[in-house]
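QA checklist item 7 of 12: single-chain prediction sanity check.
[x] sequence parsed
[x] length recorded as 397
[x] structure emitted
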Amino acid sequence: MSAADGARGPVPEAGRGGPAQEAAADPDSRRAARRTRRGEPRQHSDATGATLAFVESPVQLLNVLEWAHLHQAAQAGRLTVVVLSPHDPMTRGQLRRMAELARDEGWTVRWEEARGGAAAPLRTIGGLTPLLRRARRIVIGDPFSRYVQLLLTLTRARDLVVVDDGTATMEFISQLARGEQLVRWHRSGGSRSPRDLVFAPFSAAARRRLTPVPDSDRRTVGVFSSMPVEPPPGVPVTANEFAWTRARFGPPRLTRGTDIVGTSLVETGVVDPDHYLAAVRALARTHGATRYFAHRRESAEKLHALAAATGLEIVRPDLPLELIARRGPIGRTILSFPSTVVHTLPLALAGTGVKVAVCDVDPAWLTTKASPRAQGFLSGVTGTARDVQRLTFAGSC
């Protein structure tokens, strides 16, 4: 496996050798020390800001940056981004790199080890409560997150903004319009777990907070998205056109080859791994693809199997693909299965001459554990994509 040309590998995790080692490895500490030596003012993670944003993935943070760029929300340090860090090493690495970019833009980033042990949730919530009480606007990247749903019960903010979390945003808007409970599209039906029952009151409260009150100025709910969504009345949608990404990166150098974009459909239990491998192999053979850009959640075992079966070069990006593609080099054709990138890459790569094509998922590839909604949802992701070429099932793609 290799890193993309011109891209750095994932940022190493902080060591476990004690507090001094952790502080030395923490980019916040190193950056603050450099500012102090240069006589620059330090950024305070607890700075009172008009806007507080919560993110748990690199894509969510990218879309917070896009929203802030459009709304000029970061002036005078008025935006504080709180990273509720996950366990997954690849996700953490990309989040570290995105946090660096956010700080370079002048925004305050607060990194929370929100899942670092049994006491971490209470410590995180306790530390964030004063910020939540003072914030006038809350920006969230994942309304399905139990963590975020819990935090929403602690804020008095009048303005709520949901920024893109990719295809999940489509399902969120759909469920909000129908007045349904917030459940991720790939989760199968059936009885709820004890944990679901414990968090049910917080989920219900979050859904109420995210539902606008007609003819009331008590709170507003907005959406910032590049996805095709039809919100309920009273929820304005602002289009995310990736203006910050295009201004910050590129235009890219194009290769003569074809690249494939990986998905986590196997990891989420939607698609059978053997069918997925066969589909990627067919795509590579039919279109002469040479590189496979792995999704951050794809397992090492699966990627090794793909490399052995297809001969593709496996690339594990250190940033969201929209930025990697914009920075380049990137193939003149990008192939993908139904995913967020079939909506975002045409925007990020507008005017570059790159062609994006999407290959449908054959219903026969779905596992027995896949949600009954899976096939319809994936077809909707493909069918609503603009400025892409639509391919048939990978057996004949």
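[x] summary fact logged: The chain has two domains: 45-240, 249-391.
[ ] second reviewer sign-off
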